[in-house]
Design a protein that fits this description.
mainly alpha; single chain
Length: about 160
Amino acid sequence: MSVAVDWSMIAPEFRRETRKTVAAITRLLGMSPLLSGIRSDEDYEHGLALYESLLAVVPDEAGVETTVSDEALAMQWFEGMLGDALADYAETRWPIGETVGGSPAAIIRSLMDQYELSQSDLPELGSQGIVSEILNGKRNINLRQIKALSQRFNIPQHFLLGD
């Protein structure tokens, strides 16, 4: 697998460095077929382990005025691409919003069933009475509650925003 580059779009003074970065990216692509698509839970687990190891070693250069090596740029790109591939597979494989009906109340009910929780086991939402009102559609879930549930259950916040 290689990276196609339209060299006419790159200023001549940047072509040499860009060629080095493209070469580094091409080497990374050859190391991981996962970028062409995660096709199984085993691929997903392998990709997740690779992604977590990349998070530990890829420098975050945001806001730092320094020269970043070609390898670091390639690894940052690879990390982003792998993260996207993992997210695409997870959303396809485990579509939480679709399987539980999409409403915040339905998702919360599904989480309660999955983790065998009662209304009083959800302090992120408030008292048992508030949880009951949310589940019965008498009260909307707010942004603080969405963030707290998203963090606790490791689900994207947009799943709890409703239809």
